[in-house]
Amino acid sequence: MNTHVFKCIFCSSKGPFNTEEHVIPESLGNDSLICKCICDTCQNYFGKEIENYVLSKTPFAFWKVWYGIKSKKGKFPSIDLSQPKKEKGRIPQTSAYHDQNIGFSYHEDNTISVDINDGNLINEIIEGRKSAFNFVISPKSIEQIGRFLGKMAIELIALNKYENAMTSKYDGIRIYARRGIFKSLWPIMNGKLKNRIDLYEKINEEFEESVIYKYKIFEYGDCTYFIFDIGMERWGINLTNQFPDPATIHIFDQDECINANWIWYHDREWRKETI
Length: 275
What we know:
Blueprint: E1 21-22, E2 34-35, H1 40-57, H2 59-66, E3 78-80, E4 102-106, E5 112-116, H3 119-126, H4 139-160, H5 162-165, H6 171-179, E6 188-193, E7 200-202, E8 208-210, E9 213-220, E10 223-230, E11 233-238, H7 250-253, E12 257-263, H8 267-270
Antiparallel strand pairs: 1-2, 3-4, 4-5, 6-11, 6-12, 7-8, 9-10, 10-11
Helix pairs in contact: 1-2, 1-4, 4-6
């Protein structure tokens, strides 16, 4: 395909198209889904501004460590899930209920360590006063995860048929993914998978396939939805309606998932200025 006759599926520019975009990040195990209709500017933006955050400060980062996916330089993954000590930007990314100074590291012997850089927290655990960690999904995390899901979905649609990805019904999520929030957060869905996605899935008696994620784009009513499963979690987003009927949450449960919920903050809960 000569990508130069196409417009970028996110900004409609005519290029240049000198880089290849991994639809699902390499650090989540993708080495084959490549989209070539994203301009260099958008590709660089998504890597720096969206994927870097999602794969270091959200639950997606944990699953990257859980599966021990090495970096391009061959290093095992490690993350620090601490939130900033002070707010940065206009979208809140800190919470008083979020446990700080906690990270996870994958090691060569296939073990994972919990890295705690807080003496008081360690004492609470030793003394039995704390038995679980609290990681809060902040407005910033919701925005970034929503943009991440929207980006992957548009690219997957383009892989199947470029013209479909460019239809106007996806303009809302396209702009949200590329430009970010204008006024309101785009709700995302999260649920628990009944069975963890294993690193190796048996294809037949002789072959196994490396799998740590699964995805699906489907129609329900007059809307299009995107589901992305990883580890023990299901994430989802409505691609064509920013504010779907809350009752549609049942379509995400299906046979593999339970306890699906929409995650969202109302404008007045996070915006600093009066609306």
